[in-house]
Structures are given as C-alpha cells and as structure tokens.
C-alpha cells in the first residue's frame, strides 16, 4: 500500500549536458525533480510567469516532468522553476535554473543614457550606444514612434548621442527620451532617460521660537522648499555655518541645541540651494530663563485710607509676567488695585480688611518663582496702632 505524498526537489539541465554547451537557436531541456504519489501534475514558470505548451516555443512533458525550449535565445533568459501538485498537496522547486544565453546578433546596451537636470536655456546631452554583430541600428524617440532627426534644437550624433539645445519645458516638467537599438535578430533593446528643468520654490517664513534654558536636546527644523534636484540645506549664525558636531550642531535639516544656554539667543539663518537658485529664511531664537529675585515682597504696614505698595521685582532673559494673589485668590486690576509693569502692587485707599497675606508669582516659559508677605493695616485715628482684623488669612 502506497502512502500519498509529495517531495520537493530542484530544477536541473537535462539537455545539453552542461550549461557551457548551450547555444543560441538550439533546444534546451530542463527537468523538474519533484516526486510524489500519485504522480504530481507539473507547472513551469520563468521569472514568475507561468509557461504553457504552445507547440511552438515550449514543449512540456508531465510524464517526464520536463520543459523543452525548442529554439532558446537571449529572449528566453531568466530564472526557471517548477511547482507540482497531487492529492497530498503541492510543492515548488527548492533549486532553480537560470538561463543566460548571449547571442552576438542581439543588441545589447553598452552605454546607457543618464537622467539629466538642467537650467532653462541650457543644453542637455544624452549618451547611448548598443553593440551587436553585425552592428545594430540606433534611434532616439520622444512621445511617439517617430524617430528624432536633426533639426533646430535637436542633434543626433553618429556615435549615438543626443543633444537637446536651449532646453525649454513649456508644457511638461519631465520629458522621457527613449534610445532603441535594433539588431539582426532578437527583440529591440530599449533604454530611456528623463530630462527635467531645475527649479526651486520659495521658502516659508520661520516663526520665532522661545526655548527653555538648560533643557537637553532641543531641535528646530528648517522648512526647506521643494526643488529639482532636492535642495541642500544648512544653518548659519552670523554668517558662520553651524557644524555637524558641537554643543550646537546641525542634524539633517534640524538645528540642535544640546543643551541650550542664554548665550545661544539670536538670529539663525536656514539656507536652501540647488542649481536653480538659493533661498534663505531667518529665525529668531529667544532663550527663556527662570526668573531671579531682585526684591521680594516684605511684610508691610499700611495706613488706612492711604495707598500702600508691595514690591515684586525679578529679572530673567525674558521679561517676567507677574501675578498677585490675595488670600490665594487672583487679584485683578480695578479701582482699588493696580499692578505696575515692574510687578509692584499698589493698594489704593487701604481698608482694614486689606490686612492679610499677599503672594506674587513671577513667571517665564522656563518656570516661575513666588514669595508672599503680610500686610498690617494701621489706623490714623488710633495713633498708628494696628487695627485688629477678624481674619488675616
């Protein structure tokens, strides 16, 4: 009793005996070594494309598990493999066969044209050359199947090169030129290259940035313009290029501070340039530091009915923002309270109930500091004695 199964194998050359004996326009036979019970059905592939027995180019024997190329040539070059299936399952070859036939009569590209990017009104030169025995013919094409010929701005040289003079791409930013070689036998060989006009767009403005001092690794990205070819981007400060390695350095299109200090505040310039031109945008960097005290608020005695003052003086790289609180409640400026630009709080027409705890908070984007003081209200009619207050906070 036979047990159904399938076992993978490789693809080998059956005829001729060795790959070195393969000649153009001669038959080549390959064998698929996938075995199984019941006998599997075999399918052949070249470069992923299924092959069939067409009675002309290919002959397939399922019994012998062979593929015969009746007249192999360079057009048949590629990787051949087989897959097989039976009731037990399916398998594909674990070793494939690569066919590589060289026929001197088939055209082969020996010089391939390169893509060109030029400025408007410049010239573009494409080089192209094919080889075959006998020598192949060569033609250039653009858009349709009409070969290019010498005319006002187009020159086709005898060596196969193509010159486009005074390039003007009015209707298209990209043109594709095809170089075609035709030999005595085989398919035409086709290579192509593109022609593009160099361009660079304007840069968008860079908004000012406020960075916090002493924070490690802060980045600012340049916003480079689109361009052909892609523009190169670099940062400068005071006309000096930012290096690739330092405490302040450039990484890609980013300006990196590691860390930033107060001395790094200033104007930085992002440059973008390609063969079409150059643009730049300036960036203003401000470094925010945590406020420091110049004068903290102090416990103060104030006369009832008069104006009283509490100082809250601080300094930082950015002008601090000062907020005042009375018994923990924010003070808003009104007819009785005034906050000066330097942070001083003025209490107008002091009342007995103003005797309590006041707090000032000085803030920048880098952080804040705070301090508090108590106000004692003194009554004029009581000879300067402090008026008792029911709740001083």
Helix content: under 10%
Beta strand count: 40
Low-confidence stretches: 382-393
Q: Strand percentage, roughly? A: over 45%
Distance between the termini: 102 Å
Structure annotation, total helices? 0
Gyration radius, in Å: 42 Å
pLDDT averaged over residues: 91
Shape: elongated
Structural class: mainly beta
Main beta-sheet annotation: 5 strands, antiparallel
Secondary-structure map:
Elements: E1 5-7, E2 11-15, E3 26-32, E4 35-37, E5 41-46, E6 49-51, E7 58-61, E8 66-72, E9 78-86, E10 89-92, E11 97-99, E12 108-111, E13 116-118, E14 124-126, E15 129-131, E16 137-142, E17 154-156, E18 162-164, E19 174-182, E20 189-197, E21 199-200, E22 209-212, E23 218-221, E24 227-228, E25 232-237, E26 240-241, E27 248-251, E28 254-257, E29 266-274, E30 277-288, E31 292-295, E32 300-303, E33 308-310, E34 313-315, E35 321-326, E36 329-330, E37 337-339, E38 345-347, E39 357-364, E40 367-378
Parallel strand pairs: 13-20, 22-30, 32-40
Antiparallel strand pairs: 1-4, 2-3, 3-8, 5-6, 5-9, 7-8, 9-10, 9-11, 12-15, 14-18, 16-19, 17-18, 19-20, 21-24, 23-28, 25-26, 25-29, 27-28, 29-30, 31-34, 33-38, 35-36, 35-39, 37-38, 39-40
């Amino acid at each position: 009793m036979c047990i159904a199964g399938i076992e993978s194998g490789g693809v080998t050359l059956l005829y001729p005996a060795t790959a070195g004996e393969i000649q153009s326009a001669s038959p080549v036979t390959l064998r698929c070594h996938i075995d199984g019970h019941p006998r599997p059905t075999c399918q052949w592939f070249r470069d992923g494309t299924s092959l069939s027995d067409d009675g002309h180019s290919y002959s397939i024997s399922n019994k012998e598990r062979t593929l015969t190329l009746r007249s192999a040539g360079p057009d048949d070059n590629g990787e051949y493999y087989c897959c097989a299936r039976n009731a037990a399952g399916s398998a594909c070859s674990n070793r494939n066969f690569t066919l590589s036939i060289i026929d001197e009569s088939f055209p082969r590209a020996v010089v391939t044209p390169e893509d060109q990017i030029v400025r408007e009104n410049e010239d573009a030169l494409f080089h192209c050359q094919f080889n075959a025995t006998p020598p192949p013919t060569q033609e250039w094409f653009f858009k349709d199947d009409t070969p290019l010929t010498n005319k006002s701005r187009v020159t086709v040289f005898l060596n196969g090169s193509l010159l486009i003079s005074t390039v003007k791409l009015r209707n298209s930013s990209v043109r594709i030129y095809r170089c075609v070689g035709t030999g005595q036998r085989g398919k035409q060989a086709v290579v192509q290259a593109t022609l593009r006009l160099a361009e660079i767009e304007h840069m968008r403005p860079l908004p000012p940035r406020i960075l916090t001092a002493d924070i490690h690794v802060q980045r600012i990205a340049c916003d480079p313009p689109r361009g052909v070819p892609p523009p190169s981007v670099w940062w400068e400060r005071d006309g000096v290029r930012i290096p690739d390695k330092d405490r302040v350095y450039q990484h890609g299109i980013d300006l990196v501070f590691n860390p930033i200090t107060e001395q790094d505040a200033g104007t930085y310039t992002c440059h973008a340039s390609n063969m079409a031109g150059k643009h730049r945008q300036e960036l203003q960097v401000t470094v925010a530091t945590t406020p420091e005290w110049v004068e903290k608020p102090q416990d103060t005695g104030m006369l009832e009915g008069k104006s009283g003052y509490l100082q809250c003086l601080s300094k930082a790289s950015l002008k601090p923002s000062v907020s005042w609180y009375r018994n923990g409640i924010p003070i808003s400026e009104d007819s009785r309270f005034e906050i000066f630009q330097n942070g001083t709080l003025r209490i107008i027409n002091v009342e007995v109930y103003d005797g309590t705890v006041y707090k000032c908070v000085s803030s920048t984007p880098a952080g804040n500091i705070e301090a508090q003081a108590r106000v004692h209200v003194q009554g004029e009619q009581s000879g300067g004695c402090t008026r008792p207050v029911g709740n001083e906070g």
